[in-house]
Write a structure and sequence with these properties.
With about 270 residues, this protein is an alpha/beta fold. It has 8 helices and 12 strands. Helix 1 crosses helix 7 and helix 3 packs across helix 6.
Length: about 270
């Protein structure tokens, strides 16, 4: 049994993609320095935003289509592949790297956070699974979509990925954030990525439908952001033995986020670095 900890929980209204990433990184700095407690942040995106992994090629993105839809583009500080943030709940977990709950390697900390996610989804009535990949399940696909294939200890329902997460370790801390699609057409992402032709685009969309799903499709009913947020709070409290205290960004975190936003996430040298 993990020793009980006190964490901060922050609920944020929808924001632009660059600001969301800047806030996650600002929290990482303060939590790593232990000036703020470990933090669970729940948020959303407005307008819809395509995020790409820290090392993903920007050439995967069809910028003209993205502009036509009016959607944002941001490069995450974490790895992985592209996610379209639309009709979802996004979570981020930030803690010092020596925190007992998240200690160990990436896979070990992924597994513990997955326990909380499974608990939260269970409270919504969904029986999900989380397990390491078998050797024969390791795909060498170059598909640019995160939800195409699950990673170790990511959450699936009936073998379809229902949570997409990524983790970074830097500045003495751990940041893991992830996407939980609530409803909507998950193949919308294929319309803003580059493929060699329309046949390949349609094939990629079909494959995505076979490998990923939303809460609405899984449960047969619509789940609101607030309902999922309540379940997340209860799931983390129960699975990780933490007390979640409602909080806000500190003045320093707000200032840090503004600087990071202006100098990094809103800067094309970062977005198009690869």
């Amino acid at each position: 049994m993990l020793e009980k900890q006190t964490w901060r929980i922050i609920h944020h209204a929808p924001q632009e993609g660059a600001w969301n990433m800047a806030v996650d990184e600002a929290i990482l700095e303060s939590v790593s320095e232990k000036s703020q407690p470990p933090t669970l942040r729940l948020y959303d995106w407005q307008p819809y935003c395509l995020s790409i992994g820290q090392a993903q090629k920007a050439g995967d993105v069809n910028l003209m289509a993205l502009h036509q839809y009016g959607w944002d583009l941001v490069r995450r500080p974490t790895g992985g592949r592209a996610i379209l943030h639309a009709d979802e709940l996004t979570y981020s977990v930030t803690a010092p790297i020596d925190n007992p709950i998240l200690r160990g390697n990436v896979i070990e900390s992924y597994r513990r956070i997955s326990m909380a996610l499974i608990e939260a989804l269970g409270l919504m009535g969904l029986c999900t699974d989380s397990k390491p990949k078998k050797a024969e399940e390791i795909h060498l696909s170059k598909d640019p979509v995160c939800f195409q294939f699950p990673s170790d200890y990511e959450i699936t329902f009936e073998n379809k990925k229902i949570v997409g997460s990524a983790q970074a370790r830097k500045k003495g801390g751990i940041l893991q954030h992830g996407s939980i699609p609530l409803y909507g057409d998950i193949t919308r992402i294929n319309s803003v990525l580059n493929y060699s032709g329309e046949v390949e685009r349609r094939s990629a969309a079909d494959q995505l439908l076979n490998h990923a799903t939303t809460l609405e499709n899984s449960l047969g009913k619509t789940v609101t952001w607030s309902q999922m947020a309540d379940a997340m709070e209860a799931g983390f409290t129960s699975a990780l033995n933490v007390e979640l205290i409602p909080g806000n960004l500190s003045t320093l975190e707000l200032k840090t986020a503004a600087i990071i936003n202006n100098e990094k996430y809103n800067f094309q040298n970062w977005t198009f670095k690869y």
